[in-house]
Amino acid sequence: MRAAELYDYAVVRVVPRVEREEFINAGVILSCQRTGFLRAAVELDTARLLALDPHADVDTVHRHLGAIVAICAGAPDGGPIARLPLRARFHWLTARRSSIIQTSPVHTGLCVDGAAALEHAMDRMVRPLPAPRRPA
């Protein structure tokens, strides 16, 4: 059995109207430097986005979220940032900014499997919570 490794993650937020500071969580970026793991997962809840801002440019938001995934993957369409070393990409993506796409502060954890940790973070931080169980 492999030993647990330290990882860093940040939640990707969509802030459709920056001046209002309202946001929805739309993804997670997870990096495990020791294992060379850097990946982002995004799932935009368009209905929630439009509830915050009915005029939000959904196509642009999708394009920017896709760029995060491409940068993490080191894909050619990720531009010059995608060619940086893994840790530099993570720090670039999680740098504080005042734009429609922002990230939470960076948090740490321990995992044996980066992909499983990313899915767990998506379940806890991005995907809708399960409906409460009602008494029979």
Q: What descriptive keywords fit this protein?
A:
alpha+beta; 136 residues; 5 strands; 4 helices; five-stranded antiparallel sheet
Would you write up a description of this structure?
This protein starts with a strand and ends in an 11-residue tail after the last helix. The chain is globular. The chain has helices at 46-52, 58-73, 86-94, 114-125; strands at 5-14, 24-32, 37-42, 101-103, 107-111. The protein is built from four helices and five strands; from the N terminus they run E-E-E-H-H-H-E-E-H. Strands 1, 2, 3, 4 and 5 form a five-stranded antiparallel beta sheet that branches. The chain is of the alpha+beta class.
What's the short story on this structure?
This protein is of the alpha+beta class and 136 residues long. Helix content is 32%, strand content 24%. The N and C termini lie far apart (43 Å).
Average pLDDT taken over every residue: 95
Helix fraction by DSSP (H/I, runs of at least 4): 25-40%
Largest pleated sheet: 5 strands, antiparallel
Going by helix content, strand content and strand pairing, the class is alpha+beta
Task: State the oligomer.
Answer: single chain
Over all CA atoms, what is the radius of gyration?
Answer: 16 Å
Low-confidence stretches: none
Strand content: 15-25%
Which sequence of SSEs, written as H and E, runs from N to C? EEEHHHEEH
Determine the N-to-C terminus distance. Answer: 43 Å
What gross morphology would you assign? globular
Number of helices: 4
